[in-house]
Description:
The complex is a heterodimer. Chain A is α+β, with helices and mostly antiparallel strands. Chain A has eleven helices and five strands; from the N terminus they run αβββααααββαααααα. In chain A, a hairpin with a 2-residue loop joins strand 1 and strand 2. In chain A, helix 3 packs across helix 4. Chain B is an alpha+beta fold. Helix content of chain B is 33%, strand content 27%. The model of chain B has no long low-confidence stretch (mean pLDDT 93). Chains A and B meet through helix 2, helix 5, helix 6, helix 8 and helix 10 of A and helix 2 and helix 3 of B. Chain A: This is Transcriptional regulator. Chain A: It comes from Streptomyces narbonensis.
Amino acid sequence: MTAVATPVSPMLVRLAAEKATGALLRDHGTLYLVDGRVVHAESPAAPGVDVLLTTGGRLPREGWDEAVDRAGAHRAVGRFLVDSGRLHDGELEICHLGAVFDAAFFALSPTSGPTRFRYGVGHWFGTVRPVSAEAVERETVRRRELLDAVWPYASVDSAPVVPRPAAPGQTVGARQRALLAAADGERTPAELARLLGRPAFHTLLDVRRLAAAGLVETPQEPEPEPGPVPPPQPLLAAPQVADPDIALLRRLRDALEAHL
Amino acid sequence: MPGIDECLLEAMALPGARGASLVDWTSGLALGTAGDSPVGDHETTAAETAELARSAAEFDSFVAEGETPSDGPPVEDLIVTTRAGYHVLRFVETSFDSSVFLHLWLDRDTGNLALARIRLKDLAERLVLG
Lengths: 260, 130
């Protein structure tokens, strides 16, 4: 319905308009386009289709490896998985679309690094269900806003997930229970996503929901932003908060204000 | 069967069908859509129905005795009736970790809720089992 006001990647908008085919390389991932539409995406931050399919045991690792061996050179691994009876069409589409939007979210994250486009480069997985670049942009913006609407503290995204005891009578759903059970105090959301075979964004979102519910610690110090050097601290900088009670009160105040 | 589009087209062939979509209830993403949205925007409808589905999927009260989380969402479907229509949300079980459901919006006068519920169950199974 609504067009993206500020595109997350002006280059992607331009490539979509000129119906380009190739690979869009950014700091945190790569988008593959065919005729201006997004057919695949990869990011080191997001588990690939292979992880999603093999972790839960849907596909044995050897089945995946064989598909890559046999069909990778023809850029038709997805098709091969279906044609050889390893997967059904619907499963492939659900899993692949989930992985594409997941990787695209990270690939399109704000970056100061260069964005390059290699014309003609395709991905060995092949085309499954192309998505318009506009839909990918729109969804990426929606996901950013969703994370902040749930719990506006990005520090939980990259820090180790540390569970906190539930309040008396507080319950948590099965998927989040599984996430908490795997959180050993050291694994980050990205590591938990890989371990559980779930998309990374879904894990981030669940961690933010759990943090908002007080079931996961919210680190006081945000992770330093990679990229541009922060401006020098003004002389009258806010005092560093060391007392956890003050930090808690501040979080409470911010959360309350966010809901006013 | 076929992929997401064929599945949604079959759903749209049901009497009174006005809109159909396949939605991820963790993120609120519409993986596929057909027909109309009650608010004129499938993405908004997907985000809203996802919240409803997520609540239902995660409330302990709907878990049957003896079920474990690995059995998939405990809820089979959700039905919302309004003065003008019906909404049927059918959870899709996959053998990899996912959180998707089919949403069918029916006209109240021409839709057949009982039939739609049975067909949607069948569609949800064929979508992943072929």
